């Protein structure tokens, strides 16, 4: 049974389709693995064993009835707990939503159910997806399966750790400034942020609406592409969803896996080099780059002069949007309500609820965002940040006239020890130095393992033009074919 937890999603789907294993056996194996290791990893906030068993049984029955099923039918998946799941707790990692069971499914959840994926449960995250370590979860951190004293990245640390600990073959994340890719990098797994608008935001608990992008997390590039194909596509319920066909990401991943990148131009961002990743990360990235050139790719140095302003621009835009989005948590409409004794005024109940329900990082961002949007400061902060965003977008557009993709390390440093960056928010924000520019532009980006530094995984980031998600999968799969996947030490 335990072998089933080591297989790729593609392999599991084939085993289920051929009758080699039932969806029920596959689901039971993963539930058993969660029971075995999740007290140490804490990747899950909620395990829906009953729902998963029912979904698996339905797949097995449909298969025995001779129905032809989708390419991921019967494969288990973990879902970041910021995505609404009907009847299943959805907390966004916050006390303010404790006990909330959404009355509806997010579009991406609807699509996964329709494709026959089996939802195992909800994965841990920094509160409202704000953070880079999962330490800001109101329910306690997740631990990195590579070293349980270290962070698994964030905000989607639960989704990444579940993969690295073999608790799920696939998970879903959301990426606003790096929360799919950075956890992927520090856990030795694959995380892809689709083009903004390529995957529906309907049913996501909103953080920063002009940036939030759900996407796939997996242990192989092909698996990520398979899940991407299920999640993506136009959704009339999301006004920023793109009404265009999804590129053939699965075909591109398979093409890349043949290991031929002849004629592909990789842009190396000069400004990222100057900022500097730590030496071990830079070395592993260089090895990845060498591997890609051996496959025929050409490396071109590219200047993106405004990337150095991406972090400050993001930390005005994201908090501004969050201060507006989080206004809905008022103690009236959702979840927690504090101090409603019949005597207190509405404002007082609101304020007591928000004081008790939000953690320190969320409060910091609401305060920064409210300040940046206030009438006297709007032009100096929010307005200025939007101008910088336009300049960064122009850097990308100019770069993609010269190269096919941009490449960089995903993160400046490997998984850091728990507690080492919580005292100074700026140190935490630095984790997303390389991931944030492409969020401001809106293009797709993927992190794929490229090697180890001091025994810990390093991620290689590939960024592509908007709507060219297939291109990043091709390059990432080629890199994977050259350097292989990474396997952490056994936990038990
Ligand atoms: N670490 C970044 C932040 O704290 C990114 C978060 C995300 O992508 N959700 O905002």
Automatic annotation (TrEMBL):
EC supergroup of this enzyme: ligase
Catalytic activity: L-glutamyl-tRNA(Gln) + L-glutamine + ATP + H2O = L-glutaminyl-tRNA(Gln) + L-glutamate + ADP + phosphate + H(+)
UniProt key word Ligase: yes
EC number: 6.3.5.7
Active-site annotation: 80, 155, 179
Pfam families per the UniProt record, alphabetical: Amidase
Alphabetical keyword list: ATP-binding, Ligase, Nucleotide-binding, Protein biosynthesis
Amidase domain boundaries: 25-471
Signal peptide per UniProt: none
Record flagged with keyword Methyltransferase: no
Function in brief: Allows the formation of correctly charged Gln-tRNA(Gln) through the transamidation of misacylated Glu-tRNA(Gln) in organisms which lack glutaminyl-tRNA synthetase. The reaction takes place in the presence of glutamine and ATP through an activated gamma-phospho-Glu-tRNA(Gln).
Membership in a protein family: Belongs to the amidase family. GatA subfamily.
The protein's assembly and partners: Heterotrimer of A, B and C subunits.
Matches recorded under NCBIfam families: gatA
Record-given protein name: Glutamyl-tRNA(Gln) amidotransferase subunit A
